[in-house]
Amino acid sequence: MRPFKYQTASTVKDAVSAASNSEGSKFIAGGTNLVDLMKEDVERPAALIDVSRIDLRQVRSEGDSVVIGAMAKNTDTANHPLVRMNFPLLSQAIFAGASAQIRNMATNGGNLMQRTRCVYFYDTSMPCNKREKGSGCAAKEGLNRMHAIFGWSDGCVAVHPSDMCVALAALDAVVSVEGPGGKTRAIPFSEFHRLPGNDPSRDNTLENGDLITSISIPKNKFAGNSYYLKVRDRASYAFALVSVAAALEIAGGKVKDVRIALGGVAHKPWRAKKGRGVSERKSCDK
Amino acid sequence: MTDHFEDLHDAEGLTADEEKLLDELGLEGESRRRFLGQVGAAGFSVFALQLIAEREAHAAGEVPLEPAAERLPLENAVKVAFKVNGEQRSVTVDSRTTLLDTLRERLDLTGSKKGCDHGQCGACTVIADGRRVLSCLTLAAACEGKDVTTIEGLAKGETLHPMQDAFVKYDAFQCGYCTPGQICSAVALLDEAKRGEASYVTETTGNRPAKLSDDDIRERMSGNICRCGAYPNILKAIKEVHKGEETAATWNFAKPGLLDKEVDDETV
Ligand SMILES: Cc1cc2nc3c(=O)[nH]c(=O)nc-3n(C[C@H](O)[C@H](O)[C@H](O)COP(=O)(O)OP(=O)(O)OC[C@H]3O[C@@H](n4cnc5c(N)ncnc54)[C@H](O)[C@@H]3O)c2cc1C
Ligand code: SF4
Ligand code: FES
Ligand code: FES
């Protein structure tokens, strides 16, 4: 691992200004993705700004939404009564990811920001456009069984590994971000991650120094009729071959709304929009 | 050194191989000059002698073992104070040091194991602030003020933790390498269940899971890999502690008399 300076930020303001004042710096939260990539010499930050102690750990109800803090741990989010009651789909998706130990460390912000990646991204002796612009894509001729089916480009065929994000895509979440100069933005989930196109180096639309502060999820009527299904090579503790977050709103025996999002199939969590037209308004036999 | 060899050295007096090694270590510019300065000033043999003398002094109970690193100016030194197994500890580490390496290399707590060093096996599992975490992906620098329990901290004096007892009783290991991580994980798992935390296979949400099914224990322990495949016995051990009901052990240590008797029987 390369040498880096380490500092702790105690407020959002601290973190954002530290990031703009320190070239080549990165935020670190749970560290489960970043430390791993630094050990492999894939990420080479000159400085780490630890944001895990910023007081953004609450899960709370706010108007018609539930807001989950960016620094809340994945475990605490999945177990929170507000999440379990309103969005069992999200709880299930979080529990389907990684292991208990990793979910105890991983934060919600970090989960969104974990790299879209593949084995060659980790292997610095192989070409990879995502790691090194213009070097080529080793996955095209190599191991690519788990790679993208939708939205890929000639430059990169890797998939976003998160389970949590698949549920958030289905639930139309909104990501709150604070950037340099205290500028805040609210990004609809479908616009948060990006497709590789001709710049696979970027997984999402955040700029350097942008800090995720929270994720808000509009309340809905899917709770009784949702499921997160993850298909993988072993029963647990493996990335998805494919996963599906599916949710139905049923009223008077009719399907009022359908949400389907797919994981492990694209550079970003994939919202299947067609599913809606096909199934909506069909009557259903519960 | 002959002229022939000198030809292989560059301006810093390094061979091409040494050059490459420093590059791989990511030592460039200032940090590289400092590293070379430190090595040059002391010389490798002086370093070694110092360490040996220190070890001997430590064995004689004179001074606390203080790695050479503690005295050299670290490039990115971070001072962390945290509790380990109930005791307040304070160490100065290079910012790159993981909690696992700090426990093993600096605090002499070698119970936690390094299996993969990449978050994939669970051998390094420890309990931090009541939660099982992977010490190989935790930076020591991030542990300020935390309360860490390792496998060494589970027993009370000579009395094993019930989970340790159950692992012995059910022979829940073979080589034992994954065991410290398995046990820390299992101890934390039962606390999670007590708190009513769910899992991917817990069917009801929003309720306290009163009883963990076998599948639920398997799912919740999936972050701990066992190359020896001791899983069935690990499951039995956890189940017993979870239920709090004793079941008969499947094996026992041979008592001294028993071995003699078997030998006698054979010779008859
Ligand atoms: C062995 C293993 C198996 C895994 N399996 C799965 C799986 O099956 N399913 C799954 O979904 N995930 C899986 N994961 C990934 C895991 O979920 C992520 O590593 C984790 O969610 C990242 O969160 P973190 O807080 O640790 O992020 P960190 O590692 O701390 O950070 C990751 C990135 O996010 C940035 N960042 C962190 N917080 C913020 C913020 N608030 N604002 C802006 N940027 C930020 C950091 O700069 C960094 O670039 C696995 C990981 C491992 C190691
Ligand atoms: S698929 Fe993407 S991440 Fe994998 S090697 Fe190709 S460019 Fe790199
Ligand atoms: S050594 Fe930490 S998970 Fe393998
Ligand atoms: S007992 Fe050998 S790895 Fe588990």
Structure keywords:
heterodimer; A: 286 residues; alpha+beta; 23% strand; globular; B: alpha+beta; Ubiquitin-like (UB roll); DNA polymerase, domain 1; 5-stranded mixed beta sheet; 41% helix; 10% strand; binds flavin-adenine dinucleotide; binds iron/sulfur cluster
Q: Gyration radius of chain B, to the nearest Å? A: 25 Å
- Name the structural class of chain B: alpha+beta
Number of strands of chain B: 5
Given this structure, which CATH class of the largest domain in chain B is correct? Mainly Alpha
- Order of strands, main sheet of chain A, comes to 4-5-8-6-7
Give helix % range of chain A. 10-25%
Could you say what the CATH topology of the largest domain in chain B is called?
Answer: DNA polymerase, domain 1
Bound molecules: flavin-adenine dinucleotide, iron/sulfur cluster, FE2/S2 (inorganic) cluster
Number of domains of chain A: 1
Strand order in the largest sheet of chain B: 2-1-5-3-4
- Contiguous low-pLDDT stretches of chain B (5 residues minimum) are 1-9, 41-51, 60-65
Question: How many domains make up the coordinates of chain B?
Answer: 3
The CATH architecture category of the largest domain in chain B equals Orthogonal Bundle
Can you walk through the features of this model?
The complex is a heterodimer of chains A (about 290) and B (about 270). Chain A has about 290 residues and is α+β, with helices and mostly antiparallel strands. Chain A has one domain: Uridine Diphospho-n-acetylenolpyruvylglucosamine Reductase, domain 3 (2-Layer Sandwich), CATH 3.30.465. Chain A has helices at about 10-20, 35-40, 75-80, 80-85, 90-95, 100-105, 110-115, 120, 165-170, 190, 275-280, and strands at about 5-10, 25-30, 45-50, 60, 65-70, 175-180, 185-190, 210-220, 225-230, 240-250, 255-265, 270. Chain A has a five-stranded antiparallel β-sheet with strand order 4-5-8-6-7. Chain A has a four-stranded antiparallel β-sheet with strand order 9-10-11-12. A three-stranded parallel β-sheet of chain A has the order 1-3-2, with helices on one face. Chain A starts with a strand and ends in a 7-residue tail after the last helix. The model of chain A has no long low-confidence stretch (mean pLDDT about 95). Chain B has eleven helices and five strands. In chain B, strands 2-1-5-3-4 form a five-stranded mixed β-sheet, sandwiched between helices. The relative contact order of chain B is 0.08. The interface of A and B includes residues 96, 98, 104, 235 and 237 of A. One FE2/S2 (inorganic) cluster (FES) binds next to loops of chain B.
